[in-house]
Amino acid sequence: MDSYFQDAVFMGEPAKLSLLPSSFDVQFSDRQLQIPTANIIAIHVTHRARAEVSESDSRIHAALFAAGNYPKDSVEQNDNQGEMFRLKSFQMEYTGQHLLPCPPLLLPHLPEHLRLPPKNGQANIHVVISTFSGTQKAEGFYELALKPLLDQLKVSPYAVHRTESADSISQLTRDIILPRVNQGIKQLIILLSGDGGMVDVVNTLFSEQMTTANAAIPIVGLIPMGTGNALYNSSCRPRPNKGLPATTTQTSGQEPDGTSEDQTRGLRNLLLGMPKPLPTFHVTFSPKSTSISYPASSTHPMHTPLSSTSPSGTSTLHGCVLTSWCLHASLISLSDAPAHRVHGSSRFSTAAKSLLCPPDNSPTHLYKGVVSTLHCDQSGQEIWEPLRERDGSIRREHMYILATLVSNLEEGFTVSPHSEPLDGKLRIVSIGAVGPEEVVRLLGLAYQGGRHVDDENGLVGYEEVEGLRIEFAEEDDDGAEDKSEMGRWRRVCVDGLIVECPRAGWVEVRRDRGRSVVELIPISPAECYPYAFASDTAPVATSPDKVPVTTLSLLLRTTHPDYIKTVSLLSTLYPFSHPP
Ligand SMILES: Nc1ncnc2c1ncn2[C@@H]1O[C@H](COP(=O)(O)OP(=O)(O)OP(=O)(O)O)[C@@H](O)[C@H]1O
């Protein structure tokens, strides 16, 4: 294989460096170190030498940050849930005229959003740790990976906020972020959470007054700490099934070698990505709709009336991921119930089982109502059209209804394969009255890169729409043992929030067309051009009076075979110091 080599000193020891599509290689005289490219956060130029550096002394100094996840008590575990992450730096120094040839990962200087100065003594970079998200790993990730990275990069002062209740992120947004937004002060929120944290930020900014002209929309850098992380998996990392261009360093016909992966959990995007407006939608609920939650102390759901500012009594929520009804909404709602929460991460499968094959042997529920989609014709005229059966009749029973702005609901579940990161297009996925085996088969195809939308039997509807309306024809479920669950078939999910509509109620979803309230740092340029590391890439020339010092940041995973290989080498050279 043709490759580019750079003579170097790596942690004080002579070595040859090369950066290939799949790995960063350090070749010592007696051994080799290989680090997967997927774990590289960035190569950071921290210093450029003065003009007095002579041509004969054109050494380039570099430091390498490495971070990895490892089991809590140094015990190897095989599931992702048990892993923790950490960051580590390595110093490199290399000679010659060229900077390490990896422009997509090169960070010549900190991006503007990490250089936001404090104002009146208050930091404008906020780290928000959602302590309950996912399997509660956000605090550990902050301490072991994010904090050391921010500190070593010497980013502007930042404030750290930890959630203490389900309302913490909304409160922070309302009390601290929003007033500064209105003063025109640019802020960065580094959000360690699942989709729920983003929904709280978005809804608070929509619900509170954002004075128009002067408002400075906050930027969000998302660090995925939730269960599904739909927004992150759709907009902030490349999809595994998306093909990448071949390069001269690849043997013809070879699949890309894991290079499309980004295992840095949002840290690479934070350093190398450019903020983009986050598309959103709004959902209007008929009067008397209630949000559903399960308080820790109770096995019964709590119904809280949605607030309404409309004279007609309707309520509005905003979202950036999805609105669903039928199986998806029931699944999210049921899996949150205490009876299923006790199953931990397998609560979704136990909830799915009880919905598809009810324990009392009753048939799988088919959801009753009329669902219409909204399109605009060429003159901008709005046209509502109900979903129909093949014979042209209006469809009145449904199994799966989901409108989404994103491609993936979790890493491997591609619900909307045509959705591109932040493209702002609302797409609906619909399945009519099919049995449990069929719906399992169809949704299984979504795990194969979204093949369900091309189902040969034409059972899956998939189209881009402007909006969606559901008119419920579900009566109360008299069979429900718990009377507070009687309206369960009229529950809708908006980005994880569950709302129950009254009998004969309705829901309407529309794309937001106005100004975004948040900018998201999406997929980084490094992900778009991962093969620019290849040998045919022209190295970045550096004149002798511009000698950069760089930092290479890596995130390593203990369970990845490459990591185990790498760490066994690294640990003999530079032992990790485990936290107390
Ligand atoms: N200290 C806390 N006490 C109570 N609730 C909290 C606390 N911290 C966070 N929460 C709530 O926990 C929920 C976490 O949701 P989030 O979406 O971040 O994670 P998730 O549901 O595990 O992941 P995803 O939505 O990606 O599947 C949010 O509703 C948040 O408000």
Automatic annotation (TrEMBL):
An example Gene Ontology CC term for this record: cytoplasm
InterPro entries, per database record: ATP-NAD_kinase_N, Diacylglycerol_kinase_cat_dom, Lipid_Phosphate_FormReg, NAD/diacylglycerol_kinase_sf
- Alphabetical GO biological process terms: sphingosine biosynthetic process
Q: A single Gene Ontology molecular function, please?
A: lipid kinase activity
The UniProt record lists the DAGKc domain at 120-231
Give the matching Gene3D superfamilies: 2.60.200.40, Probable inorganic polyphosphate/atp-NAD kinase, domain 1
Give positions of region: Disordered.
235-263
What SUPFAM superfamilies does the annotation carry? NAD kinase/diacylglycerol kinase-like
Looking up PANTHER family in the UniProt record yields: DAGKC DOMAIN-CONTAINING PROTEIN, SPHINGOSINE KINASE
- What this protein is called in its record is DAGKc domain-containing protein
Q: Which organism is it from?
A: Endocarpon pusillum (strain Z07020 / HMAS-L-300199)
